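Morning run. Coffee first, then this:
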Amino acid sequence: MISKAMSYFNSFDMNLSIDPSIHQNAHFENVFIAEEDLEERVWINCEFLRCNFHGSDLSGNNFIECNFTDCDFSQTTIKGTGFREVVFSNCKINDVNFSVCNPFIFSFSFDQCVLDRANFVETNLNKTIFKNCSLIGTNFEQADLTEATFENCDLHGAVFFDSILEKTDFRTAHNFNIDPASNRLKQSKFSGSNLTGLLQRYKLDIEFDQ
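And here it is:
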């Protein structure tokens, strides 16, 4: 039996493709598919507004140049899922394991998103932009964050270990704890106000001139 979610997406396929698993140039709004199985589908230049994917299985999907706005993506399963030039805006993406995504289709940006406890272990996040995001408890172990940007992001409890942080911009990030001895920090960018996040392991008492 075809699920309600699959029937909905098939009926709104703006590409009118013979293959109902391919959606192109489509707009989806207020779609509720929490805990649905929606595997092995292709989405090209689609927009998702206020859609709820909470706990859904999106394994094997490919999202190409898609935008998600005000969506709940938390606890979704994305094993083998591809993301190419995908934009997440004001979305909830808690407890999502990005480390099992398709590594060859893996590029996106995040603006005003909640990515608490997300898993980016061993992923390539080169030049990825995180803007005004909550990344509490997020795991970046062994991730390549070369030239990535954390603009006004909360990194409380985020894990950086054996991570490539070369030319990474942390100037407006806060609450992070990064061990310079355990990560590659060549030409990383920090501000004077958040340098303590690099020195916590040394238990130094640092005072800044008023």
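The longest helix spans residues 4-11. Good start to the day.
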